[in-house]
């Protein structure tokens, strides 16, 4: 009772304690709002601009509808061929692959790869090529050759082309064909741009030529010419002539390219007389050498002081409406001047000027100055 009297005697203290407790209660107990349990959620706001389908999506859905249940690879291949848009064709191809019970065959892959390459979708084509090589479908010779053609056309896939070729060699039913060897030889020859590089790839040419022969594939003139060109570029002229002599065994006939490669190889090897013999043989068959073969033969004959032969070949070149370059003219005229035949060189220059409409005043002056300088010595 005395304690209660002391509290009542101090009302301010009682009020402050009550206020403190009330503040604590309000701090930890926030009001809770409730909604009726049966009130529905608010509806979503209306979309003022509903999304419209693109023409490509409409075409895709149209073609998907045309592929009836149970469709197979022939129907998919027909659908792909009907597309003018490579992206749409790829969408259909990918969609079909996801359907239950369906698997693409080699014909479907061949169609889509050709579509993507012609549409310049090279990254997508490369992806499909890797799928095919990894075993996505049963292979066929046309699909193998299509893959090799694509790889040969892409610089960074050069080695991949030969990996596919080796896989083709090991296969049971898809051995390399003449088209396969044509693609690979052509790809190799494009790298024969420098002499020291030629020897690196010559081994591959020789090896493939042996494999082609062992497998019973009969080469045509185009393939044999590429082999002859490879040997001639590497100055393996005896090998080139051996292949030349074997052409008849395959029912092939040498053409202007065949002779031109051999003439150039012989002249670069220093066997100019033999090169002139092949030139005369081809002219007797009314075959016209390539301009590069004409010019290297003229220069080689001039450097061996066989000026009469060189002049005859040069006039034959002009007769065939081909113009020698400045170096070819200069090599012949300088050779004559150094043999003390300056006046003959002047007369020849005038004759060349009459017959060669492409010489031009600039080249004429250069050649004239060369003769004047050499005849004054």
Can you tell me about this structure?
By secondary structure, the chain is mainly alpha-helical. The chain is 69% helix and 0% strand. The protein is built from 20 helices and no strands. The protein has helices at residues 2-8, 11-28, 55-66, 73-81, 86-97, 106-118, 122-133, 141-153, 158-170, 178-189, 195-214, 221-233, 237-246, 256-269, 272-284, 291-303, 307-319, 326-338, 342-355, 360-376. The longest helix has 20 residues, at 195-214. It is elongated and about 110 Å long. The relative contact order is 0.04. The model is unreliable at 1-35 (pLDDT under 50).
Topology:
Elements: H1 2-8, H2 11-28, H3 55-66, H4 73-81, H5 86-97, H6 106-118, H7 122-133, H8 141-153, H9 158-170, H10 178-189, H11 195-214, H12 221-233, H13 237-246, H14 256-269, H15 272-284, H16 291-303, H17 307-319, H18 326-338, H19 342-355, H20 360-376
Helix pairs in contact: 4-5, 4-6, 5-6, 6-7, 6-8, 8-9, 8-10, 10-11, 10-12, 11-12, 12-13, 12-14, 13-14, 14-15, 14-16, 16-17, 16-18, 18-19, 18-20, 19-20
């Amino acid at each position: 009772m005395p304690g209660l009297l002391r509290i009542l005697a101090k009302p301010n203290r009682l009020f402050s304690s009550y206020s403190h407790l009330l503040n604590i209660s309000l701090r930890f107990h926030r009001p809770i709002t409730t909604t009726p349990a049966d009130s529905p959620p608010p509806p979503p706001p209306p979309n003022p601009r509903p999304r419209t389908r693109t023409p490509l999506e409409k075409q895709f859905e149209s073609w998907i509808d045309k592929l009836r249940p149970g469709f197979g690879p022939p129907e998919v291949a027909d659908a792909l061929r009907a597309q003018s848009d490579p992206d749409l064709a790829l969408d259909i191809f990918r969609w079909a692959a996801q359907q239950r019970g369906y698997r693409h065959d080699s014909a479907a892959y061949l169609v889509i790869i050709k579509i993507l390459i012609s549409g310049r979708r090279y990254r997508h084509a490369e992806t499909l090529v890797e799928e095919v090589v990894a075993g996505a479908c049963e292979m066929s010779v046309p699909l193998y050759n299509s893959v090799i053609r694509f790889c040969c056309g892409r610089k960074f896939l050069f080695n991949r082309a030969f990996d596919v070729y080796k896989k083709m060699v090991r296969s049971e039913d898809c051995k390399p064909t003449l088209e396969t060897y044509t693609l690979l030889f052509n790809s190799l020859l494009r790298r024969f741009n420098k002499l020291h590089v030629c020897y690196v790839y010559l081994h591959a040419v020789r090896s493939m030529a042996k494999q082609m022969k062992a497998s019973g594939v009969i080469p045509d003139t185009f393939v044999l010419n590429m082999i002859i060109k490879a040997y001639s570029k590497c100055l393996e002229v005896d090998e080139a002539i051996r292949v030349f002599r074997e052409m008849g065994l395959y029912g092939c006939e040498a053409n202007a390219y065949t002779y031109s490669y051999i003439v150039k190889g012989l002249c670069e090897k220093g066997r100019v007389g033999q090169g002139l013999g092949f030139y005369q043989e081809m002219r007797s068959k009314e075959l016209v050498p390539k301009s590069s073969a004409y010019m290297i033969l003229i220069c080689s004959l001039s450097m061996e002081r066989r000026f009469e032969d060189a002049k005859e070949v040069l006039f034959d070149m002009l007769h065939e409406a081909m113009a020698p370059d400045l170096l070819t003219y200069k090599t012949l005229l300088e050779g004559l001047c150094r043999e003390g035949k300056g006046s003959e060189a002047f007369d020849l220059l005038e004759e060349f000027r009459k017959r060669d409409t492409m010489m031009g005043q600039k080249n004429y002056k250069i050649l004239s100055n060369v003769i004047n300088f050499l005849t004054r010595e």
